[in-house]
Design a protein that fits this description.
Layout (H helix, E strand, L loop, with lengths): L1 H9 L4 H14 L6 E7 L6 E3 L9 H7 L6 E6 L2 E2 L5 E2 L2 E6 L6 H18 L3 E5 L8 H6 L2
Parallel strand pairs: 6-7
Antiparallel strand pairs: 1-2, 1-3, 3-6, 4-5
Length: 145
C-alpha cells in the first residue's frame, strides 16, 4: 500500500477531473459505439487531466489522429463488442500509449502514474501500445479477454 501513498502525493487530480472520470465510466457502459478520452500529465504540476480539447472520440482512427508522436498519453476506452456467443460486452480499458520516441523523463513520469490512473479511472485492464498503428489491434485484443 505504500507505493500508492507516494504516487498520490506526486500526482494530482482536480475534483472536476475525478467527477469526469466517474461520469465517463458510468455513461460509456451503456454506449452503442466506441467512446474514448485522452488524458495527459502536466509535466510542471503533475496534475493528471484530460487533453485540452476535451474531445470524446468515437473511433480508433480519431484517437490516432490526436495522439502526439513523441509524448505518452493515457486513453480511456469503452469499446462495445458482440462476443462469439452473441452477447454484448463493453470492455472499459486504459490504453497506455508510450511511443518509442519519447524521452526518458516523460517515460518515467507516465510510468509512475500508470497504476494510480488505472485505479482512479476504475478500468478493467490496461493495454500497452507504442504507436498509432497498434490501435488497429485493439478490437482483437479486447475480443480475446
Amino acid at each position: 500500500m505504500l507505493p500508492q501513498a507516494s504516487e498520490s502525493r506526486l500526482y494530482t487530480f482536480s475534483t472536476e477531473t475525478k467527477d469526469h472520470l466517474r461520469k465517463f465510466r458510468l455513461t460509456t457502459s451503456r454506449a452503442k459505439g466506441p467512446q474514448a478520452v485522452i488524458y495527459m500529465i502536466d509535466k510542471n504540476t503533475h496534475e493528471i487531466r484530460q487533453d485540452e480539447d476535451k474531445t470524446v472520440y468515437t473511433s480508433l482512427d480519431e484517437i490516432g489522429d490526436d495522439l502526439p508522436d513523441h509524448a505518452p498519453r493515457f486513453v480511456l476506452l469503452s469499446y462495445p463488442l458482440t462476443m462469439p456467443d452473441g452477447r454484448l460486452s463493453v470492455p472499459y480499458v486504459m490504453l497506455y500509449y508510450l511511443p518509442i520516441t519519447c524521452n526518458a523523463g516523460m517515460r518515467m513520469l507516465y510510468a509512475g502514474a500508470k497504476e494510480l490512473m488505472r485505479n482512479t479511472s476504475e478500468v478493467g485492464r490496461i493495454l500497452d501500445i507504442e504507436s498509432v498503428e497498434d490501435l488497429e489491434e485493439i478490437p482483437d485484443k479486447l475480443a480475446t479477454e
